[in-house]
């Protein structure tokens, strides 16, 4: 997730507005909702999170073990939350300015991008101990895993590259130049290729993991700061969140054309998809969240509304349909808001 200096003031102002709206606005996640004005979500719980009320970043959920891994960037720690018991079960320190977290089920490992040290950290998902550290590029951020080749791909946001790590040896094996700032990186289970946002080029870059080479560049008309990315293999759609104009682009991965563009939460960041429900969540730095309904290749917006302070991170459980939002208030404790859809 991007923390460029020229965005700091705007995000600070957004946080103040979000905090004020929590007191003056009707709650956006409770009771009946009218289309577009409130989120069709019910708040189930708000659980205090450990550490200081500092910035949170990516989250990764293992639905089978009910473990949610949260990057507590401001505290340089990975927090482990048990979604079944609704309690924190571990805090893993010494992950400098952690941004990305990705649980890899087949390995029983969590990978975290320690941006403050320009490295990637491997964590045992049972003992919650750090087992390896690997060098990355300049400002490592989001990550994706290509299972066929046992490789982890890491967005080096400021370095203009993707770092490639062989997870069998936990060794960096390649650095792929992408050009310009790099947004999020995702794996497409259909082509078995990696896709990464080249956000200053307004492109989505396709990488062949067999060769670790760029094999295509897809131009994205209407993009401005294309940072967030989610790929739904079943629908052959890529959802691309643009932080500089608050747009969501819907890209057809078969035709390589943008099918639709939507206004979404201001300064959108993390995307999460509940595949069985067909709900796409777009979480914004502003504290707003957008929800869109995906049916096949048809996409329509359901609502955009304020959810909570700094609600730019979301993870969703496709079994229970519960969504998790770490929130950073202006003061007091950070907390994890747990919601479910109003159906």
Can you summarize this structure?
The protein is mainly beta and 343 residues long. It has one helix at residues 8-24, and strands at 41-48, 59-62, 67-72, 77-82, 87-92, 98-104, 109-114, 119-124, 130-135, 140-146, 151-156, 161-166, 171-177, 182-188, 193-198, 203-208, 213-219, 226-232, 237-242, 247-252, 257-263, 268-274, 279-284, 288-295, 298-306, 315-316, 323-327, 335-341.
Question: Mind sketching the topology for me?
Answer:
Layout: H1 8-24, E1 41-48, E2 59-62, E3 67-72, E4 77-82, E5 87-92, E6 98-104, E7 109-114, E8 119-124, E9 130-135, E10 140-146, E11 151-156, E12 161-166, E13 171-177, E14 182-188, E15 193-198, E16 203-208, E17 213-219, E18 226-232, E19 237-242, E20 247-252, E21 257-263, E22 268-274, E23 279-284, E24 288-295, E25 298-306, E26 315-316, E27 323-327, E28 335-341
Antiparallel strand pairs: 1-28, 2-3, 3-4, 4-5, 6-7, 7-8, 8-9, 10-11, 11-12, 12-13, 14-15, 15-16, 16-17, 18-19, 19-20, 20-21, 22-23, 23-24, 24-25, 26-27, 27-28
Task: Describe the structure in your own words.
This protein is mostly beta strands. It has a domain at 1-53 and 224-343: Thrombin, subunit H (Beta Barrel), CATH 2.40.10.500. It is built from 1 helix and 28 strands. The chain has one helix spanning 8-24, and strands at residues 41-48, 59-62, 67-72, 77-82, 87-92, 98-104, 109-114, 119-124, 130-135, 140-146, 151-156, 161-166, 171-177, 182-188, 193-198, 203-208, 213-219, 226-232, 237-242, 247-252, 257-263, 268-274, 279-284, 288-295, 298-306, 315-316, 323-327, 335-341. A 4-stranded antiparallel beta sheet has the order 1-28-27-26, with no helix packed on it. A 4-stranded antiparallel beta sheet has the order 2-3-4-5, with no helix packed on it. The chain has a 4-stranded antiparallel beta sheet with strand order 6-7-8-9, with no helix packed on it. A hairpin with a 4-residue loop joins strand 22 (268-274) and strand 23 (279-284). The longest helix has 17 residues, at 8-24.
